[in-house]
Amino acid sequence: MEKQKLILDCDPGHDDAVAIMMAAKNPALDLLGITVVAGNQTIEKTTINALNVTQYLNIDVPVYSGCGQPMVRERPIIAADIHGKTGLDGPNFKPLERKKCSRHAVNFIIDTVMDSDDDITIVTTGPMTNLAMAMRMQPLIIPKIKQVVFMGGSYQNGNVTPAAEFNIIADAEAAYVVFTSKRPLVMVGLDVTRQALCYPKIIERMAKNDNEAASLFSSLMEFFCKTQKEVFGWEGGPLHDPITIAYLIDPTVLKTKYVNATVDIKGVESYGRTNCDMFNYNHWEPNCNVSYELDIEKFWNIVESSIQQYS
Ligand code: BDR
Ligand code: CA
């Protein structure tokens, strides 16, 4: 079976870290590089976090640091209330020996896609700044990208404002560039990620696997679920980002609908909203496969078998 090539662009982040764990050792996937963006924390911290995760799990994949601020707005928005001061509070990491690669993440994306046989999927689990910058810097990459699978947006409520989800509002202009790129898009929004609630019994189930990945998963999720309860009042935190990787491993984990989807970059209250025309009110051309249902049991099975790949 031919492996699915991908670049994972992320802002670790507890759920991003689980996505890295799942993408790195799956026999169906070929993770070419991890590119990092500012999001859950500053770019310095998210880069260190990606390196810590790869070192902890002995993952042999290069890490490239990218953009530290959104394309247009001056200041990044961070999510320290959910992910803590480091952006990855919870686990105890050994002193960091790994180093990031010297090439900028945007240049890595451009070079890798340009050199490819048009068979690379880009997965984004943070703000879309790196990918949008790459598309603007070298538009020739756009037709060569196989598909973009992203965690972001919502056709219902947001999680930063009533309208907007974090990854989109953190760089709405970048999301606008990607949404208008005319490449195949798969949106893994809050509508499905809020179905993947990591209850204590899930943490117990994963911990039983008793390997490095299981212990990382447990320490990450214990912290993440605590802050999710403080901020949103939920017993189990939604494991947003890993659903993108689960979808690549087994697309039947999601049900999607091909509709027109736009990003609001002009609104005030609705700035950063993803308007997904699920009922085709506007009769505009579809551009995005919007997820609306998660097979929850299948998802947790994929997470568990990913953990078992580290035994
Ligand atoms: C998204 O925001 C971040 O805090 C998470 O890592 C996820 O990518 C959910 O809105
Ligand atoms: Ca993320």
Task: Provide a short characterization of the protein structure.
With 311 residues, this protein is of the alpha/beta class. Helix content is 37%, strand content 18%.
In words, what does this structure look like?
With 311 residues, the chain is an alpha/beta fold. The protein has one domain (4-308): Alpha-Beta Complex (Inosine-uridine Nucleoside N-ribohydrolase, Chain A), CATH 3.90.245.10. It is 37% helix and 18% strand. The protein has helices at residues 14-24, 43-56, 80-83, 105-114, 129-137, 166-170, 172-179, 190-193, 200-207, 212-232, 242-249, 296-308, and strands at residues 4-10, 29-36, 63-65, 120-124, 145-151, 185-188, 197-198, 237-238, 254-259, 261-263, 274-276, 288-294. Helix 2 (43-56) links the parallel strand 2 and strand 3 (63-65). The two termini are 23 Å apart. Residues 13, 15-16, 40, 79, 82, 125-126, 151, 159, 165-167, 240-241 line the site of beta-D-ribofuranose.
What layout of secondary structure does this protein have?
Blueprint: E1 4-10, H1 14-24, E2 29-36, H2 43-56, E3 63-65, H3 80-83, H4 105-114, E4 120-124, H5 129-137, E5 145-151, H6 166-170, H7 172-179, E6 185-188, H8 190-193, E7 197-198, H9 200-207, H10 212-232, E8 237-238, H11 242-249, E9 254-259, E10 261-263, E11 274-276, E12 288-294, H12 296-308
Parallel strand pairs: 1-2, 1-4, 2-3, 4-5, 5-6, 6-12
Antiparallel strand pairs: 7-8, 9-12, 10-11
Helix pairs in contact: 1-10, 1-11, 4-5, 5-7, 9-10
The structure holds beta-D-ribofuranose and calcium ion.
